[in-house]
Amino acid sequence: MTTLKDISNIEDIKLMVDSFYDNIRKDELLGPIFNDKLQDRWPVHLQKMYGFWQTILFDVRAYSGTPFPPHKQLPVDKTHFDRWIQLFNTTIDSQFSGPITEEAKMRAANMAYMFNHKIEYFRNAENELKK
Q1: DSSP H helices in the chain
Q2: Using CA atoms, how far apart are residues 131 and 128, in angstroms rounded to an integer?
Q3: Domains located in the chain, CATH noted
């Protein structure tokens, strides 16, 4: 049995991000949403994600911005976020193991929960205004 190493540098983050989004692109639930939204802008998105995870996991200021607004209008619900977390955890667990890996999984789960909650909140608020 091979012992997996922990996420420890930008190259590990690139491997994690690239593998995860390769799986997203192929996924029958999430792939169409991501591919439609990003189209030919995948390289730009991946670069942002490298910086995002470097900032989150290593406290290196490689990302600045607000990640929620681009997600606010996506046609997603809890089912999509659950699938996103499942793919994230499966992908990362196949490559890495250790405290930083666990931190990444926890941060991803918290983000998915928060994004889902905020999207539902805004949708409900918009529906109330339409009444």
Answers
A1: 10-26, 31-38, 42-58, 78-93, 99-130
A2: 5
A3: 10-130 (1.10.490.10)
Q: Is 45 annotated as a binding residue?
A: no
Is 80 flagged in the annotation as binding? no
Confirm if 115 and 68 have CB atoms less than 8 A apart.
yes
- Side chain identity at residue 119, one-letter code: I
Q: Enter the tokens of residue 105.
A: 């999984």
Tokens of 7: 């996420």
Cα 33 to Cα 22: distance, rounded to the nearest angstrom: 14
Rounded CA-CA distance 36/25 in Å is 10
Kindly report, residue by residue over 20-72, the tens digit of the pLDDT: 999 999 999 999 999 999 999 999 999 999 999 999 999 888 877 777 767 77
pTM: 0.88
Please answer whether residues 84 and 112 qualify as being in contact, where contact means their C-beta atoms are separated by less than 8 angstroms.
Answer: yes
